[in-house]
Design brief:
The protein has 87 residues and is an all-alpha fold. It is 59% helix and 0% strand. The mean pLDDT is 82.
């Protein structure tokens, strides 16, 4: 059976970052209602998207913090900024 290009990309996790995806999930309705109330949104989709975005931001910050002391940053951020502008 031949698959279209998008199906093959999706199978390999290569969908564009902003690609929308319909899916069915079994979620606790009370938790979703609470999430919608806390986020002050009207749709379940918006609540889930905001929650996923927050989770991703949180995990990225955590990973960044775990690098503390392991990487060396430029001493002068202005010099770094100017170097990037010249490039």
């Amino acid at each position: 059976m031949e698959q279209d290009h998008e199906s093959v990309m999706a199978h390999h996790g290569m969908l564009p970052y902003n690609a929308a995806m319909r899916t069915t999930l079994d979620l606790d309705e009370a938790k979703i209602r609470e999430l919608m109330r806390l986020l002050d949104v009207r749709s379940k989709t918006e609540a889930i998207e905001l929650a996923v975005d927050e989770c991703l931001r949180s995990r990225r910050r955590s990973r960044l913090r775990s690098l503390a002391g392991r990487i060396q940053l430029a001493e002068d951020w202005r010099e770094l900024r100017d170097t990037e502008k010249d490039a």
